[in-house]
Predict the 3D structure of the following.
Amino acid sequence: MLPDFLIIGAGAVGLASALELARRGARVTVLDRFRAGAESTWAGGGILSPLLPWQYGDEVNTLSEYSRANFADWCARLQAMSGLDAEYRTSGMLVLPPYSEAQAFDWCARHGWRCEKRGQSDFLPTSSMDGEEALWLPDVAQARNPRLVQVLRAAALAAGIRIVESAEVTGLISAQGRVTGVMSTQGEFAASGVVVSAGAWTGTVPGLEALAETVFPVRGQMLLFKLQPEALRTIVLQDGRYLIPRIDGHVLVGSTLERVGFEKSTTESVKRDLLAFSASVLPALSELVMVHHWSGLRPGSHDNVPVIARYPGYDNLFINSGHFRYGVTMAPGSALLLADLIEGKSPAISAAPYAQAMTGLFASL
Ligand SMILES: Cc1cc2nc3c(=O)[nH]c(=O)nc-3n(C[C@H](O)[C@H](O)[C@H](O)COP(=O)(O)OP(=O)(O)OC[C@H]3O[C@@H](n4cnc5c(N)ncnc54)[C@H](O)[C@@H]3O)c2cc1C
């Protein structure tokens, strides 16, 4: 039986961690300084894979693949618990040139992914790039972020997890190498263990400033359009930018990677750039009025490798953060890994890469 846990941050990573710890018998309270899931988790696109996995290291792909292998069951379980649907589905992804065909086919063959060359007109009715070939990755899945947030929140409540919103953690309370609780804007909370999943803000939690260089904010902007359902059926990716179609015809256009600190405004120049991109792929979008333009702050990390580890100097303080571009993809796998670490069990994948940043950081102090 696990002891009481406090989780700081109710994004996808914090709620997934809470649900897994509760499933293993812990009593869990999640604190969020704002509303559950309203930050990066709400803002993201919900593509459930690294954009081009062959461009990432094994640390990213091992955790992503572990998560992907669990994602369908995880969503089904959450749906049964919450009665809500995160719109998890395998919509596939079309990658438009430029891309390295040899690298793509080699990686896909080694990892059991299906990959084919297809004409763009098979998927895009009137692309300005008609006639050119593209890579078709039929196994790429997606979830609809704002729905996933609702599902996670409702499933957590159904599991008996306490979620306290508008509770900003302002300090850790500790004695003799153990955290005994936290101070917050809603008073003190005691716990036998604490997990920090505060996303881009992880290094701003008082006491964890040493992590500010390890987990840092990276802004991404996104546009939203509304087409007829099925007007676009697959995710389309080109040069780091993408279109993501939802079941009801909404299409997201993203995104950017901007190191602008904790600045969450949107900019006209990015809007112009994303509009031009979207019109070049799907000209019908240029005739529509944009529904929404927003930005979110990803929990950036070096080489996109998250930190999932015990925090040095404390027996019972854990970090699960820094998932950067793939925090939704990696959420269930990271929660399993974290819970195994906490329980002292041998995890299904090696935990070492995800403690690396922390080890390096504290070795140099
Ligand atoms: C534009 C964009 C597109 C993206 N697309 C994808 C994608 O297609 N696929 C994918 O897998 N990922 C994508 N991501 C990344 C993904 O959204 C993030 O990696 C993921 O949401 C991180 O989850 P998190 O729980 O760590 O952080 P968050 O969702 O940011 O949650 C952190 C929470 O901590 C809370 N918090 C912070 N400080 C405190 C404190 N002191 N006290 C209490 N609470 C605190 C915050 O209020 C917040 O709710 C995208 C992100 C963006 C911005």
Remarks:
- The first strand starts at residue 5 and ends at 8.
- Helices lie at 12-23, 40-43, 58-82, 101-111, 145-158, 268-281, 327-343, 356-363.
- The mean pLDDT is 95.
